[in-house]
Amino acid sequence: MAPPPPSAANVSQPVIDSLSARPLPDTDQPDTNQPDTVTQPLAVVSEKLPWRHTFISLKVPNFRIFAIGHFIAVIAIWMQRIAQDWMVLQLSGSVTAVGITVALQFMPSLFLGPWGGMIADRFAKRKILIICQSAAAVLAALLAVLSLSGRVEVWHVYVIALALGFVTVLDQPARQVFVNELVGPKYLRNAISVNSTTFQLGGLIGPALAGVLLTAVGAGWAFAANAVACCSTVAMLLILRKDQLHLSQPTPRKKGMLREGLNYALSKPTIYWPWLMAGFVAVFAMSLPVLLAAFADHVYDAGAGGYGLLNAMVALGALMGAVASTRRRQLRLRSVVTSAGLYGLMLCVSSLMPSMVWFSVTMVLAGFWCLMFLTAANQMVQTSSNMSIRGRVMSLYLVVLIGGQAIGGPMMGWLAEHFGPHLAVLISGGVPAIAAAVVAVVLARKSSLHLKVDLRDRRRVLRIVQETQPA
């Protein structure tokens, strides 16, 4: 059985975010054939969360099993990604080629992502994940054999990256929605943050291990490790207790399902504003590994170990951001926009750093704000969606987030190769930072907000307040 919900004494009455324009949803409400566009607001924690509740969703046995398998898989997939990017760079000598690899892996989501969300709404998410992870294991094993046999060429990596992209089309929306089936609505926000923490902890360990393997034995063993990890994920999915899952009824097939999901999302500011910010961040600032490869190889001459270290620094900051997100007391649009802006600002600052040490420090800060943005946006989009349509909404969100990287990967690689890594990372951060500033102004004007300075209040000298209309 799932653990009891937090005490009512620790949860205030629901509060509508002044930047949301509409309230957030009540995920406990039953699904309907016509998903609602006006739903109940999200409860806001009024007291500081006890440290023992930071990862409270892990009390759910099924989610604990899933999280263990996910953690192992994340370490391995980070190892494969770092090894794959570095191997392409060494085989081709081109940063643009690394960007093309990223683009091929994400391109299918750009065109087929909504279809994957429709499949997630119509079929059992657990079965979809088992099929996808089995396919990923086969692809990783194939890449390992090619690499260890010394026969691997750049086009081999391109083809396997593209095939893995097709797997991602089905895997990602099903994985996003499956979290709710593991923990239920009470622990959904915490579970999303725990997943992010797990991903970033794996991102801290994986690149470091990849750097060691690349230096010691080559990329092939990193691919082999990922194949084994995918198999372990399948095993974890098979041992989950079906009777403890919060299963949702599959949505019957009908005409216009994708259009319904798009119209539903566009009717909610708490969905389309995070979408918009995710688009700017994904296209310009989510291809950071491509830029880090350029800095490690062309600027600092740090080799594979340096590349792994820079990725680990980003993951360290992201890990801190993921933990901080589990303790977030309020979920607001301003949090989404501010985090995106600060992430962009940190990338801009990194372009001015004089040494690899200071560059690494800014990467920690960039990783922190990147994860604060991603978890806030993910939580807001998921909790703003009725369960009957959540798969399609999340797939459209992932089209923006993942598909944007398909565009941004080769673009940032080309900029780094032809105009230098410093200018590329400045553009990478500058565009999202400017976009966040513009969106913040638009939202403030829509909600009649303004910045108030109060020198008498030492705790909140600056605060955002809403103008009151005269009676």
Automatic annotation (TrEMBL):
Pfam hit, one: MFS_3
Keywords, comma-separated and alphabetical: Cell membrane, Membrane, Transmembrane, Transmembrane helix, Transport
Chain segments annotated as transmembrane: 62-80, 128-148, 154-170, 191-214, 220-240, 272-296, 302-324, 336-353, 359-381, 393-416, 422-444
Region of interest called Disordered, as start-end residue ranges on this chain: 19-38
UniProt keyword Transmembrane present: yes
SUPFAM superfamilies: MFS general substrate transporter
CDD domains: MFS_MefA_like (cd06173)
Primary location: membrane
Domain Major facilitator superfamily (MFS) profile, chain residue ranges per copy: 62-447
Feature: compositional bias, Low complexity: 26-38
Compartment(s) where it occurs, according to its Swiss-Prot or TrEMBL record: Cell membrane
Membrane-topology annotation of the record: Multi-pass membrane protein
Database matches in PANTHER family: INTEGRAL MEMBRANE EFFLUX PROTEIN-RELATED, STAPHYLOFERRIN A TRANSPORTER
Entry protein name: MFS family permease
Natural source organism: Arthrobacter bambusae
